[in-house]
Amino acid sequence: MAKRINLNVIALLLVSLMLFAGVSKTSAQDIDSLMKIQPGRARAITSTDPSFTGNSDRIKYVTSGETRVLADIKGPGVIRHIWLTFNEARPNWLESGGSAAPNEIVLRMFWDDAAEPAVEAPIGDFFGAGFGRRLEVKSVPVQVEGGDGYNCYWAMPFFKRGLITVTNEGAKNVRSFYYHIDYTEEDSLPAETAYFCAQYNQAFPEKLGRDYIIADVQGQGHYVGTVMSIRSRSPFWFGEGDARFYIDGETKPSIQGTGTEDYFLMAWGLNPTSFPYYGCTYMSSDFEDLGTEYCLYRWHIIDPVRFRKSLRFEIEHTGWITSDETESGKTEGHVEREDDIA
Question: pTM score, two decimals?
Fold first, then answer.
């Protein structure tokens, strides 16, 4: 699903999951804005029972390979909130054989009759949890209760049409898919209104000799978020790689960080935690163990990375390594590694 994207709009990107979006001037977090009456009309599209009297308020099955339309909305409008949930993957009372996992259900969004989706990512990764896991997230734009109740508060504007679909790319059915999409009908949108986009990317494993590319974007915009899932293929600490932002065609990054955990606003390693603008939603074992999995997020809502012509965002994949994995003899600190990243 990874692709190069050309946009002449403001952009928000997510690591591997790359979000390109404009955040509305009046956000859900701006409580003071509620004192002023705003134009527009509230609407919602949900999975409620069409009869309005029964309890069949869900998509019972999304079969393997099937695509379902969740919303097809005439613009201009702005999606304000998405809530959804579905049956867990392991065998349970609803499905004795289990159901599709969060990384097997792909969310796509199309704005204004575009042929290519502006959003294309597994549901789990879109909501901050990789490797098909269901994890709790407590952040400003994305909140997941108990790993089950998925909520997204990113503003998603469109001028003519907003189309949202889900596709089951797993072998098992998606069972009991519920959703509620809140949006406002608008009289008009400002000409500078940005589209919301998100793209998933992965490298299993990362390629030696070059940094991992998180985003490579043409156009004007701002980068406002990163989600990253990592699985170590070597023992010991992976996270010495610096984040590097190349803005408007730079050959040398004008923004360079001091380490992977530092970019995710933590220090001296990683620990499971969830804050409004950053977190580590999952860490499977000690950082020195082989195969340790991490799920991380960092939102640039307060500190967006702005660019006029282009943005290239990369991160090094360096850390400690065992002596039998390198011919250089160097094992500590800043040695290139081949981990899995998405």
Answer: 0.87
